[in-house]
Amino acid sequence: MVLSRILIWVLAALAMGLIGCQSDTEWYGKDIRGLMPDLEFELLNAEAQTVTQVDSSGKINLLFFGFTYCPDICPTTLAQLAAAIRSLPESMQQQVQVLFVSVDPERDSGERLRQYAGAFGAQFVGLTGSQDQLQALTRRYRVTYGYGERDANGDYNVSHSSAVFAFDKAGSVRLLLREDLTPAQIAADLQKISTE
Amino acid sequence: MTDSTPLMVTFFIPWEFSWLIFGCIWAAIILFVRGLRQGVEPGFGRSLAFFLGVLLMYLVTQTHFDYWSQYMFFVHRGQHLVLHHLAPFLIALSAPGTVLAAGMPKIIKRWFARQTKLRQLLTKAYRFVQQPFLASLLFVGLIAFWLTPEIHFDAMLSERLYWIMNWSMALDGLLFWWLMLADTRDRITPQLSYGVRMLLLAAIMLPQIIIGARLAFSKQVVFDVYAVCGRAWPISPLADQQLGGLITWIPAAMMSVVAALILLRRLLHSQSNPSPAN
After folding, report:
1. How many domains does chain A have?
2. Which residue among A141, B13, B49, B171 is least enclosed by CB atoms within 10 Å?
3. For residue A181, is it within any domain?
4. Nearest CA to CA, how far is A86 from chain B (Å)?
5. For B137-191, how does the pLDDT look when each residue is reduced to its tens digit (9 = 90+)?
6. How far apart are CA B180 and CA B196, in angstroms?
7. Where are the alpha helices (DSSP H) in A144-182?
8. How far is A160 from chain B (nearest CA, A)?
9. ipTM confidence
């Protein structure tokens, strides 16, 4: 029957397409070329000056969303990135930059942001922005954040993305690094991006 | 932290506006209203079911509900419950074929009447996917396919895949419920006997119960994409997954029961007035 032959071809094409999308075996992170857009942002640095992707060009950028009051995910992830960067050859360490974007601008003002990011290493840049700027960027990378109820002390929890997005020196999107990666695995991926 | 726009207004702003959805929804409404004005009388109940089904499809895809669906697993399951089960069920129940055909502009009707080849091909393709086994396999297979962890991850990450996923669910929902609820006025859809329909409705229940219950009882987070992308508000990942599992399991399986009851009523009705039964 002609139709069943067509159906088989369609299914075969779909299967090939899916296999094609998942050819990320050689990376520890997840290859997200084609799934996500390249690096582009407009945010505020700790000095409340506007910065864009142009200010970060020429480096391997690791984009991460969080907040400085974060009890678990942020310090763990940032410490792992720091360990990964420290294990790289000295010359390469300068080529990596971590963009830590706080999605809690109300509490994460300039000085606090600078100290927090700086504590992880010279490669860590603390950024934040207005709600509009933050929403534009999180939307671009299809991630989100939200605020919990305030407790008696006025503290609140913040839900945010646990992913690190890696971009090569040209600002092209490359990898999504999940939280279960070890520093050695992250370092191996970074080295691979840099030597390409 | 909160912007000044009232919640009701923000709710109705589409999170990701789609011309295709917008166009399809309006085309469906306009065709139906035109059909009613041409004198086709489907009755109040059928009209209500049609508009409710279309409205539900719109609400879960073109409002802030879509945002929650992208960043909360259980809301996503709710979105698919509407797209794959509830809304297509209502639309198929309203059997809108005659009304929509009457509402079609004359130019298109005349053009379509001349395309014998195209009509034959479409009918053939339609009947092919509406074979009982294939239709139920597609219905359950699509649920399982998009809930495969790696595929689910990509679908929630990529805007294009996300919309392919939602369209495939809505279209397959329409196909399946149309096949289940088709009555004798429908001359194109294969007329399955009541027995076969009941059997298929029961057959699709079991895999849905297994998929849903496995998620509801799992002690591990199967879909990490919601942690990777962040949740719409802070909630325990396991609670999110359990709720999602329950939605995949109970109301989804209940739709089979509702459909079976409707068919049973039709069967009894056809036995008491035996004229047009199949």
Report:
1. 1
2. B13
3. yes
4. 24
5. 999 999 999 999 999 999 998 888 999 999 999 999 999 999 999 988 888 999 9
6. 9
7. none
8. 4
9. 0.73
